[in-house]
Amino acid sequence: MAHEELLARTDFFAGAPPTVLRELAAVGAELHLIRGDVLFRERDVADSLYLVVSGRLAIVIANPIDHRETVVALMDSGDLFGEMALLDEGPRSATARALEPSTVFAIPFDPVIRAFRSDPTLLWGVTRLLAQRLRVMDEALADSVFLDVTGRTAKRLLELSEGADEFVLPITQEELAGMVGASRERVNKSIASFIRLGWIDQQDRRYVIQRRDALELRAR
Predict the structure, then answer these.
(1) What pLDDT, on a 0 to 100 scale, did the predictor assign at position 51?
(2) pLDDT of residue 1
(3) 74-102 core/surface letters (b: 16 or more CB in 10 A; e: else)
(4) What CA–CA distances, in Å, run from 192 to 163, 172, 176?
(5) Looking at 143, 158, 174, which one is the last position of a domain?
(6) Is residue 112 domain-shared with residue 24, that is, in the same domain?
């Protein structure tokens, strides 16, 4: 799929006319990453936003004391990220790391800013994206308050399954623990309890959900 088509499918650029999308696609560049590659680090100076063409990246924040990472978001094909620094001119607020071989399309800030200044109605797309980000953060905050580690583990497994009863976990156990916001040991203990109850079956990174209803109930 052409880059301008991918851009048009994002909330950020949904209202942009074809001429603007073509201009942005022309100045962008593809970057190819392997698993573990860091696209940018927290506190880096920012000059581009990114669109995932293929693969998956994790957006992580590190604890300044023990350096343990929390995964705050997963970016899949079609997702756009890195826009916050464009809006407030600040440094990167998190680290972006490839979880698998990935291709991202980097778009410099300057032509995006020029497009917004020439047609301020395009900022409605920015508003929609920020509203979505706030909804996700609100849900994550509610999870941390109302769900225990076992409940959060159940919810993350359901999200990562993407509706399938059999799936391969796309991240490591350590990265899953970062998504849950708990130690790897506590997350593994929760998974062991699901296996013992017959809710899931697990072989390495391959999972089979046998009682989705029970997992969904535990995730509430």
Answers:
(1) 96
(2) 62
(3) bbeeebbbbbbbbeeeeebbbbbbbbeeb
(4) 21, 16, 14
(5) 143
(6) yes
φ, ψ (nearest 5 deg) of residue 7 = -60, -40
At position 101, the amino acid (one-letter code) is P
Per-residue pLDDT tens for 62-107? 877 777 778 888 899 999 999 989 888 899 999 999 999 999 999 9
The number of beta carbons lying within 10 Å of the beta carbon of residue 22 is 14
Q: What are the structure tokens assigned to 214, written together?
A: 């029970």
CATH number of the structural domain spanning residue 58: 2.60.120.10
Neighbouring-strand partners of residue 139? none
Report the domain count for the chain: 2
Which residue segment(s) compose the domain that 87 sits in? 3-143
- Dihedral sign from CA coordinates of 171, 174, 175, 178: positive
Positions of the chain with pLDDT under 50: none
Q: Enter the pTM of the model.
A: 0.80
Contacts with 38 (C-beta within 8 Å, 6 or more apart), sequence order: 95, 96, 97, 98
Within 10 angstroms of residue 29's Cβ, the number of other Cβ atoms is: 11
DSSP H helices, 37-108, are 84-88
Same domain, 129 and 93: yes
Q: End-to-end CA distance of the chain, in Å?
A: 38
Helix (H, G, I), strand (E, B) or coil at 17: coil
Residue with tokens 């905050």: 141
What pLDDT shows up at residue 171?
82
Q: Which of 86, 112, 143 is the last residue of a domain?
A: 143
200 and 122 share one domain: no
